[in-house]
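Our preliminary data section would be incomplete without showing what the modeling component actually yields. Below, a chain of 267 amino acids is followed by its predicted structure, encoded as tokens that our downstream tools consume directly.
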Amino acid sequence: MNTPIPGLDDILFTTDDGVGRITINRPEVLNALRRQTYVELLAAMDACADDHEIGVVIITGAGDRSFCSGGDVRGQRTRRPEEGRSHMRTLLKLGESIRTCGKPVLASVNGYAIGSGHELHLMCDLTIAADTARFGQVGPRVGGLPFWGAVQMLPRTVGEKRAREILFLCEQYTADEALAMGLVNKVVPLSELAAETDAMAQRILDLSPRSLRLLKMLVNHGSDLDHPTYAMGAELLASTFGDDENLEGINAFLEKREPDYRKFRRR
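Predicted structure:
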């Protein structure tokens, strides 16, 4: 079907036989997320929540290299706290929409799931990964703070010690490593990813929609208690935008060099 939401630039959105399909469509930047992308993702998720005929949602990335490489750093160089707070509110609304839509949301990870792209897959209920996928967080490397699910969901998903490793060291993990630590549900060859994701979606559509809605609400309950930390993290991150330490990470990324954070520990 054609997209039911007019004027989309950063995503593709279709509905077909009970499945809402959302594709981040910025392959030229490895499907990095800018403000407009978040706005469109939120509109698509809300549309899926409101459409009674949709029973499952699939989120993926365009191309075969990246699910989502995180936030688009190019737009962060000029971001200041006031603009940042508005941006953070959009992230919070998107996360809330994924968690409260009442329908299973599947992440079909076809490559890099890094930074906020990694948090996006954490927000989803189930994750199917291609064998080429890579997972990781980058907050301290780029002067940021992964408040949007990583600090809340990772300890529950992989255990606190491994979560601290992922958050603090900013390393990347293969699909098989992610499977071994319980970060994804299944790994398949890239050529089979779309078919396997569709097959899982069809299995879900054969189940009671009311039971699934109630189960999602109940499973979410424990981590729903972390909700205040999302708003707190958003405010903390927004307050750092534009200062020297924040810009060191952003400029280093854009200039393709290693950041020098040691200077911020010198007297």
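The mean pLDDT is 94. The chain has ten helices and ten strands. Preliminary results of this kind motivate Aim 1 of the renewal.
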